[in-house]
Structure formats: C-alpha cells, structure tokens
Write the structure tokens for this entry.
Amino acid sequence: MIQYLQRALFVLIILSTGSTVYLYNYSTFHRCAFPLQADTHDLAPFRLLALGDPQLEGDSSLPNPDDALFPSIVNLWHDLAEPASIAQRLQVTRQSLANLLASDLPRILQSYRKRLDLLGNDYYLAHIYRTLHRNLDPTHVTVLGDLLGSQWISDEEFQSRGWRYWQRAFQDGLRVDDEISSGIQVGNLGQDDTWKSRIINVAGNHDVGYAGDMNNERIQRFEKIFGKTNWETRFRLGRDSDTNITADPPELRIIVLNSLNLDTPAVDPDLQRDTYGFINNIIVASRPVEDETTGTILLTHLPLHKAEGICVDSPFFDFYHEDEGSGVKEQNHLSYNAGKGILEGIYGMSGNPQAPHAGLGRNGIVLTGHDHEGCDVYHHLPYHPDPDSRAWSAERWATSTSRLDKTIPGIREITVRSMMGEFGGNAGLLSAWFDDHSQRWRFEYSTCSLGVQHVWWAIHVLDLVTIGLASLAALGNFYNAGA
C-alpha cells in the first residue's frame, strides 16, 4: 500500500510541477509577444499591455452581514419561550432543525463559496497582469473600463473594491498622478521607467454609469481612486542632448476619453460639456493634420458605431422613462454621430481632397472595451459622387479590402476582449514605432490568452493536494525512522 501511495505521490509531483511551470509561464508556452518592428525586428519602443473589463464584484453579491447567521435557531428560542405543550415544542424544534439543514447551512456554504470565488477571481486577474508584465516587459499598461462590476454600489463598497483592485488584482501598479493627467505632459519615450508600473485606467459604465445616470459624485469617487477620466499625455522619440533636434520630433499622443456621456440625453449636462470641451481642446492643441510624424492612440470604453453583424454586440440604445430623466440607460456602441465626431474631430478625417492632407486625417489607432467578446475593425469613409452622401462604414480588419485604398480616410479600432475568466483571460498587446522609411508611426496588435479560470483553480488545487500528501508522507517517514 505504501509503495502505491509513493508512486501516486510521485505522479502528482510530476503533474503539479509541470502544470505550475506552465501556468506561471503560459505566455511563453503560448508564444505570446509584442509585435516586433517590421523593418528591424527589434522590440518596439512603445509596448502597451491592454486589458479589458475585469469587473470586480463584491459584497453586493453576498448575503447581508446584518442578517442572523442561523435565523432558524434564533426563531427557535423565540418560539420555545412561548407557552406550549411538549408535542408542540417538539414539532417546532423539528421544523427549526429542518430549516437549519435546508436553508441556513446551504446559504452559509454558498456565502463562503462566493467569498472564495471573489478571492480567487482577484488573484486570477492578478496572475494575468503579473505574468505578462514580468514576461513580456510592456512599457505602458491600460485597463479599458469596467474596472468594477456596478456603478450602483455604495461609496464604502466602491472603496473596498478599489482596495482589492490595487492590492490584489494590480498589486504594485500605480495610479497615474494628477500632476501628469491634469495637463498635457510631454516626455521622451522610454525615459521614465515609472510608466511601466502606472495603470492607465479608463472609466467604464460599471464604474461611473451611462449618460443617463452619470453624476459628479460618481466621477469624483472614480477619479480619487483610479485617476482622471479625461486627459492626454505625449511621448516624443528620445534624442541625445548633443543631437540636432527638429522643431517637431516624432510624437505619440495617448488620449484617455470618457465616452460614456457623448450621447444624449445626459442627466448632468455640465459633465457632458466638460467632455466635449476636452475633445475641443484636444483638437486645438493638435499638430497640423498634415503632420504625419504624430501618432494618436485613443483609449476609451464605448466602441464606435458599426453595423449589425460586424461584431458580437449590435447597435443598441435604451433610455430611462420620462419621469426618471429620459437619459441614456444602456448602449452597446456610440451613436453614429458621436463616433463621427471622434473620427472627424480628434483624427481630422473628412475625405475632402481639398482639405489639409487631402482629408485623410491623422495617423493612429483606437482601443476600446465594453464588448466582452472583442472585435477588430477598420472604419473608413467610402467614396461617393455626392459628398453629402458619404457615410462612415466599418469592416472586419482581417478581411477588409478598404484599408488597402490609401485615397480614402480610415483607422483601425480594436475592442479588446475581456480579461475575465469566462472570456479566456485575454490581454491585448499593442506595439508602436516610428518608421523612418515612411516617416509615420506604425501600429501592430496581437493577443495573449490564459484560458478559463477553471485552469487556474485546478492547478492550484492540485498543488495544494500534492503539498499536503507530500507533507503527510514526510511525517510518516519521520515517524517510522524514529520508531
């Protein structure tokens, strides 16, 4: 019998060691990597680890802590205190015990299972972040909204989930300082290594609400814990101090935009004006549209409008009742006009051959969240004999032929698949570099997936079982040696 147990333990050790090595180096086994520069095959100077929709749940999904732990027992003492015959008291006792077994104990076990599930989910998300951060060496990190699971939670619960976000899921990550996000900061790309640890958090509907329920209080509590909702920073290609520097060296712009109140009606018009004012400031502060040495990366939560069937989520809007303000209650995409405003405003695309840069607009890429399944599309403005009839359209990036037509404006939008276990623990890997030949920024994207959360759980349970059996075997050997 002992020999069989030793053999079983040996097999468990082999399985446990192999699976653990795989789990903590899954990015290597899956051959995950940031895309290399096409011309030199070197690492790109800008490597963005993009994560979507972690949606940390919390105490709102647990039983009320103010409720009695065993209400059937509490009720039993109350019922037994009332005058009654012995038979009646026995009947009350049997009923209370039945309620204890059928209701109280399952509820308590479910509560502890849920707590364990929340704890495991935090560390599952943390495993994705830590493993990819360690193995792939990103220069920047972003989480594209829906950091938490609900905008309706109390301030206390919001702070609790914020603590879990920073101390578990993204431990060692840093909030972007207000000094950086309060104005347009310009730095040399790769000069400040702290950016590797900063988390660029984007506001999602589960964090601050849609336009119909977003208010100043929700914005303030989000910004206090996670950072500003609308801001921009810029990175220029580093130059040695003794090198001749052109007036406008190649520059990469990172724009973080709260797109959740671009559509109307909005319950707080002032917040909406702030967002549109921010967009206007972006446009005013931009280099000329014909300057191709600038690349613009837009990070926002809501995807741009696209026709049904292009992505999993189709266009959808729902609104509150009139007595509730009639505001936007839910939406899958931005409206066509809101998306058009981004493409033609921030990116300056018009399709007018008489406009600056022939209406082709600025070079860049858009990263969004919200659609948990993810999507990769090319937005373009097809030619039409009647200029007033031209309309923006979207095609899947992999099969798009319009992106080969350099005479019409267009841009790639990547909706990053959720990092939740249900969606495979996905992460997006965006590389950006300045191509000296074309004198333009280039962007390439790949993905890396851990797998469903059950894989993470199974391997850690296997490790615990193996450690437990190994400990028992060691104790047994020690006892036998002493005997």
